[in-house]
């Protein structure tokens, strides 16, 4: 597979589902198509949107609704389906009977494989988003959906009963709707009181009629758009997995996490939005910063380093022992110089935490890593290989030019060794070079590499454009020398 190949899942569909939201707007970004697009992206899909109505609303309420002519809605729908293969559709606010008619006709013609209908009727603020006379038309749309996701009041309207007072009643109403309209129902219990929030997938015609999901109720005001976000997430997961209950479970896990972080966004004074990407951000899915950019620039070099015969031999343990000793003999000299540069960085650092980090790094370099060399080299000293000499000269020059370049120049050694260590660690058991692999896969080393990266990013952010450019160049030069260092290990002579 080339770098540019689209990943394909086992059923031959692109792994990134193309999901269309047909819904109204929310200029504050918490509900409607704005929320749908974030939700689809956060759950791994490619989001598209056709607008049914323009809604002047915020976290406090709806001010007015503008519905474009339905002919234009038809054109939007056609423009998408004439061009794009749609893997899933989520339907939200429809507004009135004419809009429902156009969407229904389009569904009939295009027949998307997944259709999730969120029967939006009333906003959290209490404002109507569906005219009362359109409620019948919305019911008639149910059989065209694979799943309908009503909240407690919406379920009452669909079933023609009064609002349920407890979750058992919710399930009874959902069974009735499922039975009558031949549709799966995800009945949502968000509007009921209690420490536990219950939802249930109800399918009167399925092998299991009721599958219930309980989760903790998050104490938060940021619940605007939870229904929109949930239905979009389920549509996205359903396109990817083909399993309704699995899709609902995954979507709920994501929504609960997003609800937890909603208030931190501080959007609006009413019911704020959920934080759609909070989980991704927390897990580091957001590779920002200057070092991330430099790291991406050396991607092919890193791949080549990974495929290097020396590292391949280390990985499967087939590396000749004398080649490893030769490598360590050079590395011992390199680390000696490297530690000196780290001490120099400690002297140059302006921030106390950075000074502390580089001092500790230098000490660790001299003690922990040299223990490895002592074991293997047993006092042997080798002549300095030109590559080792070049690398040390480069580090010296960089740190002589200033703290910024010095920091950038020492980073690839940390980062590339941590990458190699972590990659080789799973196969380390029984490997004669296990001690080497363990040194660089150790959590403490990997954390130090990460800390060095964070510091370098911080330094780059403070630096001028010119200095930042020089930092990037120093980083790249070190990365090249790192690669050459490994490559040279198979040709340098044995220690004396
Ligand atoms: N405070 C909360 N803590 C945890 N989960 C919640 C909370 N509030 C709602 N949910 C969950 O969010 C989803 C939407 O629930 P809800 O019943 O509020 O639907 P809704 O009224 O359509 O949403 P919306 O707020 O968009 O109108 C459900 O899965 C529900 O369990
Ligand atoms: C365009 C649009 N669609 C749906 C909702 C419902 O979301 P909520 O009930 O959270 O206000 C909304 N407010 N606006």
Automatic annotation (TrEMBL):
It catalyses: 4-amino-2-methyl-5-(phosphooxymethyl)pyrimidine + ATP = 4-amino-2-methyl-5-(diphosphooxymethyl)pyrimidine + ADP; 4-amino-5-hydroxymethyl-2-methylpyrimidine + ATP = 4-amino-2-methyl-5-(phosphooxymethyl)pyrimidine + ADP + H(+). CDD domains: HMPP_kinase, TenA_C-like. Its EC number is 2.7.1.49, 2.7.4.7. One of its GO terms (molecular function) is ATP binding. Keywords: ATP-binding, Kinase, Nucleotide-binding, Thiamine biosynthesis, Transferase. It is an enzyme of class 2 (transferase). GO terms for biological process: thiamine biosynthetic process. The keyword Kinase applies. The keyword Coiled coil does not apply. Residues 26-274 form the Pyridoxamine kinase/Phosphomethylpyrimidine kinase domain. Residues 309-491 form the Thiaminase-2/PQQC domain. GO terms for cellular component: cytosol. Pathway: Cofactor biosynthesis; thiamine diphosphate biosynthesis; 4-amino-2-methyl-5-diphosphomethylpyrimidine from 5-amino-1-(5-phospho-D-ribosyl)imidazole: step 3/3. Catalyzes the phosphorylation of hydroxymethylpyrimidine phosphate (HMP-P) to HMP-PP, and of HMP to HMP-P. This is Bifunctional hydroxymethylpyrimidine kinase/phosphomethylpyrimidine kinase. The gene is thiD.
């Amino acid at each position: 597979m080339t770098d540019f190949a689209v990943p394909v899942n086992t059923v031959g569909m692109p792994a990134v589902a193309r999901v269309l939201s047909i819904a109204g707007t929310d200029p504050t970004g918490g509900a409607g198509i704005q929320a749908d697009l974030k939700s689809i992206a956060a759950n791994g899909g490619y989001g598209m949107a056709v607008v049914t109505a323009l809604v002047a609303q915020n976290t406090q309420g709806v001010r007015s609704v503008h519905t474009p002519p339905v002919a234009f809605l038809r054109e939007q729908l056609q423009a998408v389906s004439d061009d794009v293969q749609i893997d899933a559709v989520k339907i939200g606010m429809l507004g009135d009977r004419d809009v429902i008619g156009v969407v229904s006709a389009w569904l009939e013609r295009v027949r998307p494989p997944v259709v999730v209908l969120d029967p939006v009727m009333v906003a959290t603020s209490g404002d109507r988003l569906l005219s009362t006379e359109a409620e019948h038309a919305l019911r008639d749309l149910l059989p065209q959906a694979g799943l309908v996701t009503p909240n407690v009041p919406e379920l009452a309207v669909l079933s023609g009963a009064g609002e349920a007072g407890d979750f058992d009643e919710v399930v009874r109403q959902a069974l009735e709707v499922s039975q009558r309209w031949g549709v799966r129902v995800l009945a949502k219990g968000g509007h009921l009181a209690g420490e536990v929030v219950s939802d249930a997938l109800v399918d009167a015609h399925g092998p299991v009629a009721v599958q219930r999901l309980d989760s903790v109720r998050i104490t938060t005001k940021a619940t605007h758009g939870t229904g929109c976000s949930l239905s979009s997430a389920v549509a996205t997961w359903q396109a990817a997995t083909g399993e309704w209950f699995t899709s609902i479970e995954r979507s709920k896990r994501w929504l609960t996490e997003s609800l937890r972080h909603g208030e931190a966004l501080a959007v609006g004074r009413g019911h704020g939005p959920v934080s759609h990407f909070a989980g991704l951000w927390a897990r580091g899915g957001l590779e920002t910063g200057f070092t991330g950019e430099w790291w991406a620039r050396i991607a092919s070099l890193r791949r080549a380093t990974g495929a290097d015969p020396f590292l391949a031999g280390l990985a499967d343990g087939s590396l000749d022992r004398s080649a490893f000793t030769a490598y360590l003999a050079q590395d011992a000299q390199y680390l000696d110089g490297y530690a000196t540069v780290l001490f120099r960085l400690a002297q140059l650092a302006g921030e106390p935490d950075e000074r502390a980090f580089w001092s500790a790094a230098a000490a660790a370099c001299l003690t922990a890593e040299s223990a490895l060399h002592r074991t293997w080299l047993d006092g042997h000293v080798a002549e300095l290989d030109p590559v080792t000499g070049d690398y040390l000269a480069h580090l010296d020059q960089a740190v002589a030019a200033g703290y910024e370049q010095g920091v950038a120049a020492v980073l690839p050694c940390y980062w590339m060794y941590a990458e190699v260590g972590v990659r080789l660690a799973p196969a380390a058991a029984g490997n004669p070079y296990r001690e080497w692999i363990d040194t660089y896969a150790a959590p403490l080393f990997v954390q130090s590499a990460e800390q060095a990266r964070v510091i370098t990013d911080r330094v780059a952010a403070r630096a001028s454009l010119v200095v930042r450019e020089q930092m990037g160049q120093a980083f790249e030069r070190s990365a090249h020398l790192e690669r050459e260092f490994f490559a040279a290990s198979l040709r340098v002579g044995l220690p004396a």
